[in-house]
Structure prediction request, 112 residues.
Amino acid sequence: MNVVSLVGNLCTDVQLKEVNGDKKVATFLLAVDRPGEGADFVGIATWDRQADACAQHLRKGARVAVDGRLRSRSWQDGDGNRRSAVEVVANRIDFLDRRPTEDAPFETAAAS
Prediction:
């Protein structure tokens, strides 16, 4: 079974890219707290309509819940070095913050 569920805050703004001219992928880095130990930083990727929604509504600092699967991949960079990465491919992303305004940063849905 390959199931991942995370709650955290975006460390980066969402990067939206077009792949093969007909698909979109959004990527961002998520900080997930480990109480008393710091945080883990996890790469997240999501596709198509969900990618568009993330690019439109999420910014660095936003709190989200992510459900997906773990994926590892490897490639050769421009210098010929072998690279690898482990990331979560999100099936579902829930936005946990209220929509920000220019005057107010993200605030959690639980805050009043």
About this structure: Residues 31 and 37 are 13 Å apart (CA to CA). The chain has one domain: 4-95.
